[in-house]
Specification:
By secondary structure, this protein is mostly beta strands. 0% of the residues lie in helices and 50% in strands.
Length: 124
């Protein structure tokens, strides 16, 4: 059974940094893409970034481009979301999702497995 677990959320002052981790287990993920999404209070879940698991491209929402970076450790089946220069508007529950195809997607419905989410709160 595939499991996806996020960690690393917390409370941080504006301008600070956090690194989220997403650990996937249950099978190999060499050819799977991974996406990060977030949902702020009272808002719909939105795309943050996506990356192919091995090789391929990485891309980001305009709102986080230049501040957030996705990286991965294939040996650990773990993907990271490094978040720098955080703003209060980045406050949300962040979700990791795995897609059973090589390339990522902006659309939630394209992902097969989801984590439970981790809370990120940025205060000014």
């Amino acid at each position: 059974q595939v499991q996806v677990v996020e960690s690393g959320g917390g409370l941080v002052q504006a301008g600070g940094s956090l690194r989220l981790s997403c650990a996937a287990s249950g099978r190999t993920f060499r050819t799977d893409a991974m996406g990060w999404f977030r949902q702020a209070p009272g808002k719909e879940r939105e795309f943050v970034g996506a990356s192919a698991w091995t090789g391929g491209g990485t891309y980001y929402a305009d709102s986080v481009k230049g501040r957030f970076t996705i990286s991965r450790d294939n040996a650990k089946n773990t993907v990271y979301l490094q978040m720098n220069s955080l703003k209060p508007e980045d406050t949300a529950v962040y979700y990791c999702a795995v897609r059973g195809l090589r390339h990522g997607s902006l659309f939630e419905s394209d992902y097969d497995y989801w984590g439970q989410g981790t809370q990120v709160t940025v205060f000014s």
